Protein 1
Amino acid sequence: MVDENLIHKALANPFRREVLRWLKTPGECFAQEYGAPGSGIPVNAIHARSGLSQSTVSAHVAVLIEAGLLVSTRVGQWLLLARNEEVIQAFATQVRLHL
């Protein structure tokens, strides 16, 4: 189920939209040592690229996860993030059909 209100709230912030753009093409935006395509990008790589404080990045990432736009996977000490393409496509469809 897609919560349109949570997604609109998440997308209202320019940094959150930027994170989604970075994760759309992670091979272009992050160093290759961050794993195979599709496995996700560590949150500390987003922190390093953004130049924002760790707590600020964590708060933004939490909003994106709550909205369902990102999927997080814990691998050892790493928290890997990837776009939730299914939710993004469902939201885009809802916007296209209802607005």
Protein 2
Amino acid sequence: MRIGCSILLGAAALALSLVASASASQGAVRITPCASTEYTASIGDAPAQTPTQSPDQLTIVLVGDTGFNPKGAEVDPRGFKKNGKEIGFAESVSGVASDINGDLAFVNLETVITDRDDLEPDGKGQTSPYNFKSHPAGLRALLNTGFNLFSLANNHSMDYGPLGVEETLYHLAVAGAEHPIAYAGIGTNYEEATRPGCLELGDMKLGFSATGIVTGQREEHRAGQNKAGQAAYRNPKDFQLVLNRLAELPADYRILSIHYGLEGRVVPDKRQLTDWRGKAAQGRGIDLIVGHHPHVAQGVERVGNSLIFYGLGNFLHPGTAEMKRFGVCRDYGLMAKVHLAKQDGDWRLGTIEAVPLTGTHMKPERFSPQQSATRIHALNHLGARLGDGGTAQGVLFTPRSDGSGLYCSDDANALGGKIGAICKGYQPAPATPASIARQLASACADKPFYGAGKKKRKRWQRRRSGFERR
């Protein structure tokens, strides 16, 4: 454990109090940690805030898997290297910084955060495990860009064992003393690992939880009563507890992050449909479910008043492959901007902007408009395969001149404000041009793993058939 950790955390809590007090003297704080420490992801007792009116519209930016180092690399406060090229942290996010313009911005932090190189990597029972750690300066670059919702639950949270978990939590806590953020998914014990985070935007309260797979269902990676770790998504007890705690949190809007899926697969599997659509959306009414892990984008679905992103793909991770060689259905990460409006006391979907990203292994940025439009059609190809014939319907996006895609709810124009402006003149998604449709029929085939050989395909087929029998 970091020497003097409790003293430093106490200092961080004091810093939070001073920052909030200074802000209160200058005017009401727009986004703050929730006042109840039982449901806040920040450290210390949050000071009382001057109440403000809840906004009528909100924007949530979503991106996927993120880290700041290749496999096993040492941390460096100056930045990171990929294929012999060096880049600073601020520069690595500069290509999309102007797009991180929401009230809230979500990212899956798929790395241990530490400034130490003496942590012992976890072997995970593998011959050549992938272990990721990133310097806290990378986290600061994300904070300075506007990110304030952090999922910590994934198959790399335990890459450096319990000490790595404590390091990550320490640096997130310090960040929380300077910025109003929420994070969830790991903890020093089981209660913390399943605890939802919370933020207040005026008098609007947002609940946030995260869960994800652990490598090989390894029991030593699961949090325990007195053991650091993560709640395991594929453990039914863990998933149900995370879901229940979020659903029972007094909140106006709830976001659930889930790190799961078969790598390279662009179509959700049976577990995703059962758990995300069935249990989370239809069963518990979770407003927004955000998926990641397969490294590729999957489709988007509306389920009644809930919204599901089955896969966002990569955002910025030098530990992942350059995706260009995998074709137009797998070579991009998805950034989404979800615009909400308050109607009759409830927060409802107004519009979604979809932005395909390239360069996700080092410096994410937009495609050219024409290239981006092809990826929007690919996303629509996947969305058209979703839905259950009832309350669940796949979301289709209309390509725009800047290459992004747009979806507007039926009453978006009447909402006025930012949503009304975005949706002015909106027309539903057109049919995919025949030439692109032919290309997508092959590119979006439901392959088990990008670049997989015969042995891996056979192993995936056995896994899939075995799961379906269960």
Protein 3
Amino acid sequence: MAKIVGYIAASLDGFIAGEGDDLAWLSVYDGMDLGEHDYARFLGRIGTIVMGRATYDFVAELDQPWPYSGQRVFVVTSRPIEEPKGELQTRRHIDGLIAELRDLEDGDVWMVGGGRLQMAFLERGALDEIEIYLMPELIGGGAPLFPPTGFRAGARLLGAEPMDRGCVRLHYAFDRPVAA
């Protein structure tokens, strides 16, 4: 059974992107030494990528090759993608997708991008773990790590460690709800 995970950077004030999806604040950390937690190593254990439409549109507009050619990719969207930048599948219904993902056995599933889709998975008890790379930056606003939805949950700390350039890696697990 595949584990569904998050791997994301956030500012010290809790944002993953500045106003207008600005990531310039994060680019100053390019080349940072994450050791065994390096992005390339992380991506090597990922069999499937899941992202929402806004994240797909953002990645597709970048002036670079499709970064996920080695993985199965699902985009959660209700709108068709006319000319996909990379090989991908679309899904409309999160519950059906979660069941499909749980049956995979060829690597973990990474929830890429924004907090809305990660929150939808959390609300369904389907986000198993998250690695948050807390960057020593206050950016003052933008897209929050987790959008406010009224959902409450506890997380179990698996690890916390200082990284290069003042970054702190926080690793949490979410226990799945027990069926009544």
